Amino acid sequence: AMESAKKANTVGDDEETAVGIECYANSASGFQAILKERYTDFIVNEIGLDGEVVHLTSLDAAVDEEIDSREQQKRQKAIVQLSATQEEPDDHSDRQLDDGKKAPAAAAATPSETQGEGTDAKVEQTEVAASVDFSAEIKTAVADFVKLAGPAEAERLKEFLEQPGVLLPAAEGKPAPAPLISASSNDKAYRTSMHVFFNSHFQLMTDTVEAPSGEEASGPVKKDSKRPCLSIRVHPRKPVNSKGGNGGQKRSRDEGGGWKGHRRWPANLPQYLEFTLCKENKDTGDAIGVLSRILHVKPRSFGFAGTKDRRGVTSQRVTIFKVRAARMAKLRLLGMKVGNYRYVDRDLRLGDLKGNLFTLTLRGIEEGSQLSISEAVRTLRTSGFINYFGLQRFGSHSIGTHVVGAALLRGAWEEAVDLILRPRDGDKPQVAMARSIFKEQGNAAAALKHMPTWCVAERSLLEGLVRAQKNDYVSAFSSIPRTTRKMYVHAYQSYLWNRAASERVRRHGLQRVVAGDLIIDTGCQTDIDNEDGDNDWIFSSVREVTPEEASAGVFSITDVVLPLPGSRVIYSESVQKIYEEICQSDGVQLVGFAHSVREYSFGYLTGAYRRLVTKPDKVKFDFVRYSDPSADLAETDLARLQPVQHDTVKPAGKAEEGELLALRLSFSLPTASYATMAIRELMKSSSSQASHRAATLSANHIVQN
Asked: Taking the model in full, what pTM does it have?
């Protein structure tokens, strides 16, 4: 019993100890197994805010069929209506132009004129339908414009907007109408309101031009103002045959304004397409990058609730701005599929999930260990695990991201630069050469020539060093993308939390809540893990446990939280002492600003809280027999859509048993909790990749012999 109690507080892996992962939550026996031997051994399905588990079950774009049918009916109805209007011309058809000629008839085509083949007929039909849809908007806009510029200007605007080719691209071969020049004014605020008006109502391009020479201001005038009288020029939409395609509406690569969406987006259709992304052996960011390149949109056009592991098969919801499901369904993708489309009014944002459902396969289980493993799973379900930040939080290199973060928090700028660019074990030859050049010569420009593009932080830092003045390391560091810069300081926050959690467990164990612990006093179990501190209510709900509450056992260990340092978190005296001891050993200031660069100080960060212990939910497990080490032992969403039978998978205990044994385990965790830490608790073994590789090689050697 004494030996098992000791085991609950021991770790045999230097890589974990280096980032504060030092203790276990229970003393159940561990076991050896292989994790992630195949991608299908690590399956992750997102759990939405509605509590539903995300699965990819359909690849078709059936959602668009009803929408397209409705739009087609609207177009046909509009053509018939305007054709009838053309047969009975109104008083406006005889209106004289300035040169004495009659104005052309409305740009409506009769059914017989639009039944020809080719795109011209389709474009014209669409324009006719859209012109009907714009009539109500024109009426509303003109009414608003009267208040802004007066009746005379509003009448000019109405005539301009009703011209064919203004609100819709002019048909091929037809010249676009001349721009509208507003009444001139020396009131800059008035002109600004004009720009805002046209952008908000019709997204028409505007610019400012000089009034004709000698002309007096015809719009609002500010007395005693020395500003010149200028006019607003309003441009019609560009014609179909203008350069760049897409009806002349250029995309962000030309205008820098971002993807504006599908040009003929159906009326009343929500602007975001939400779909399920199922990927294999890809980071979420990599998958989004592939989709953005194929669709020719910016990565920021996508939204998602959280990033998913690379080595595994994961399913999650994603949104994209104004891209139709039918277009997405036509994509030919490698290593991922998309489907289950629907249109929504809001994009997904980080944190828009309840958690994740994990389905894990642990291979190479020792024969006869089923009873002890079953007991270990049941103990994990009861005790939970210490909610450590996993090793992946601190990077995969020999120099952890938290080490760089500590240097930044100390204001040791040159040291931080050296840590990022220093030679490391396991670097690829080109990267190793670039690092070696910088270390030996200090020549950032020469090192930059060899640093690969996929080393984003290193290349950005070298570019900054080339541009910056000598020894201006702060400016050079600012060249690194902001999200990456934040990652370094957040990693040190996580390191501090891990160290503090281990110290709390060593001092008091996990059997009870003690006086001085921090708890969230809301009366219910609530998801709180949000590193950016967006849940403002949390900061007013955290308080210290009193001695009376501790002795009465009012709270359970799952109520206890520890802070991620920042300006809005609180510490009890005992908790703050733990944090200060760790910070002092690293030369980091826990409270306030250690230097003038606010971005790299705890006083600049908001801070957050994280639960000390997490319990997995929906825990299920069974044992399976298999003969082929390369066989898939769990069914993924991709496999369900393209079923493949594996004869090697048999439930344990059947007559025809394979010679190898595996544990299939599924459980759900709240957002920001690491499945690797749950498995570490279950197996009582290191979560490092090196340990798993060694176990895999050892097991394969046994199988081969």
From this structure: 0.69
